[in-house]
Amino acid sequence: MAQDREGPPAKRFKAAPPGTQPQSAAPPAHVQRRSLPISGARGPLLARLRRLDTAILIGETGSGKTTQLPQYLYEAGIGHPGVIAVTQPRRVAAVTLAARVAEEKRTELGKLVGYTVRFDDCSCAETRLRFLTDGMLLREAIGDPLLHKYSVAILDEAHERTIHTDVLFGVVKAAQKKRKERGLRPLKVIVMSATMDVDMFSQYFNGAPVIYLEGRQHPIDIFYTKERQSDYLQAALVSIFQIHQEAPACQDILVFLTGQEEIEAMTKTCRDVAQHLPEGCPRMTVLPLYASLPHSQQLRAFKPTPEGGRKVILSTNIAETSITIAGIKFVVDTGMVKAKKYSPETGLEVLAVQQVSKAQAWQRTGRAGRQESGICYRLYTEEDFEKFEEMTTPEIQRCNLASVVLQLLALKIPNVLTFDFMSKPSPDAIQAAIDQLDLLGAVTQKEGQLVLTPLGKKMAAFPLDPKFSKAILLSPQFHCAEEILTIVSLLSVDSVLHNPPAQRDEVQAARKKFISSEGDHLTLLNVYRAYKNVNGHKGWCRENFINGRNMKLMAEVRAQLRDICVKLSMPLESCRGDTAGVRRCLAHSLFMNAAELRPDGSYGTVGSQQLVAIHPSSVLFQCKPACVVYTGLLRTSRCYMRDLCPVDAEWLLEAAPEYFRRRLRSAKS
DNA sequence: GAGCACTGC
């Protein structure tokens, strides 16, 4: 048995998972408003908030805080005549919340109530309640650090600690202070969160009071295993079938696993086992769920359970916050997650399976009690659970900070090393980011202070990693702006190349015609040109194993980047066949990611002489160019360079003479 | 000769 069901008494608790997910929780509209838990507290809540500059609002799932509070504030005239901003970590949430609130106010979406997300602005001068993504408000702040148009900033889902929310904390705190000092209209800041991190939020915002809101979450029973499980997959399998044979039909199971491959394998195993069950067992429908799964297949997880059957959903952490499935009675938590780590010394990103935090485990557990009471099986011992980290490390402590530092400098933060972060990244990580920006020519010292150069200011206008912004800004010098725009856009979305392992030979045959001996970037450029030639025809995409969805997204990104170029009055030319210009431009912007062939046939990075290899997915896999630049490193079984472009060592010397003089092997000889 | 969790501007 994977877990102990008769042993020590189950812990019964009232789960308070974060994250109201409006897109599928969707209670009926305005008729429901008055019966939400928050409505009983309206009067006292408004009285308190009216007096406060800053408040931390803790609300359980189902409290109605996200939809109701902005309306209450507006109806009470708090913040009038400014705009009330409500930020969300995800686009869908911003859009669906705005739609719902507009419906409750019985107004047209985009007028009084609106939303603003990337590629989609549904708001106007009349808009008073504005839902936006946290990243969008941050971008606005670059143009207007004091956020003049807003009178209230509500930062929702703050416990998720996205990199954007974390930077916004500092931005709104500073804006509030400065507006006060200058006698401007005050900025009210309301931080909304689930139960974790309460003290930290309050402390950060100068001891701001914490207001608790009742929620409406059903009780969930939690079971731990008696003994530590050596194989969480085996334990999960046993648990699934144990539940399946004991629980009534129509009670669905959600299982948290770590990744696509694991989920696909487990899906197959479960389906096989399910075929050999004794008679009288409910029919089992096993459904995988992960982000890269085609949308149509994701939707299957939402279909109601067939009469007399049972749905078993095998999911990544996408089901923790982004996707909510109704009717889950059982959650099986393996306690594992695949997550990214970053080490500033090597610039290496590592994607590794690791233990979840306590907060994450509670989040998973909460997915069981959304419509009625639920049960959660934790495939680890209670003792081990106690040893889990309290919180997941905030994203800002796990990332390359080059973009963040560039944004902070664009916000005219006087000293990025002492910026008021709620959770400070390591000084090494900040310094590494400054060094990168320095090499790109984005920053300079002025009167002992780090400031942006004119180039740096332009770079900050692009929603991109600084090295890509630099590529775009340099491209006119090489007469290839159109091509670089395409390449950078392709690199900033998920891969447009679809690689189903089962059809490997067909994929290779179809891809042949796009391959350029000048590397992966130019191969991608060929794909885009061919795609444009057939006007993005769907059948063509299918035949050529091109991901049409990502291609469309890429086109949107490209249009946005092109707009920014036009606003910066950049001359946009195409080099047509002269692809050397494109490679030179890439050499001048990716020079920090350069590697040289060594006499023994291996590759070493020019920066730190680290041993690296060409990723087998690269078109240059079988080739041995003397000198390459790459988009990034990926650490798996070895350290791989991804997206390669062969370059001349002289180009690198041209790009950053000081940096390369001592480093480049070919320059020494 | 490999394989990538999830967001967002």
From TrEMBL:
Q: Which GO terms describe its biological process?
A: positive regulation of MAPK cascade; positive regulation of NLRP3 inflammasome complex assembly; positive regulation of transcription by RNA polymerase I; positive regulation of type I interferon production; translational initiation
- For the region Disordered, give the residue spans: 1-35
Start and end residues of each Helicase C-terminal domain: 242-412
Its catalytic activity?
ATP + H2O = ADP + phosphate + H(+)
A Pfam family cross-referenced in the UniProt record is Helicase_C
Helicase ATP-binding domain location = 46-214
Where located? Inflammasome; Nucleus, Nucleolus
Sorted alphabetically, which InterPro entries does this protein's record hold? AAA_22 (IPR049945), DEAD-box_helicase_OB_fold (IPR011709), HA2_WH (IPR048333), Helicase-assoc_dom (IPR007502), Helicase_ATP-bd (IPR014001), Helicase_C-like (IPR001650), P-loop_NTPase (IPR027417)
**Which GO molecular function annotations are given, in alphabetical order?**
ATP binding; ATP hydrolysis activity; DNA-binding transcription factor binding; double-stranded RNA binding; mRNA binding; rDNA binding; ribosomal large subunit binding; RNA helicase activity
Q: Which UniProt keywords apply?
A: ATP-binding, Cytoplasm, Helicase, Hydrolase, Inflammasome, Nucleotide-binding, Nucleus
The entry's family comment says: Belongs to the DEAD box helicase family. DEAH subfamily.
Biological function: Implicated in nucleolar organization, ribosome biogenesis, protein synthesis and cytoplasmic dsRNA sensing. Stimulates RNA polymerase I transcription of the 47S precursor rRNA. Associates with ribosomal DNA (rDNA) loci where it is involved in POLR1A recruitment. In the cytoplasm, promotes elongation-competent 80S ribosome assembly at the late stage of mRNA translation initiation. Senses cytosolic dsRNA mediating NLRP3 inflammasome formation in macrophages and type I interferon production in myeloid dendritic cells. Required for NLRP3 activation induced by viral dsRNA and bacterial RNA.
Protein name per UniProt: ATP-dependent RNA helicase DHX33
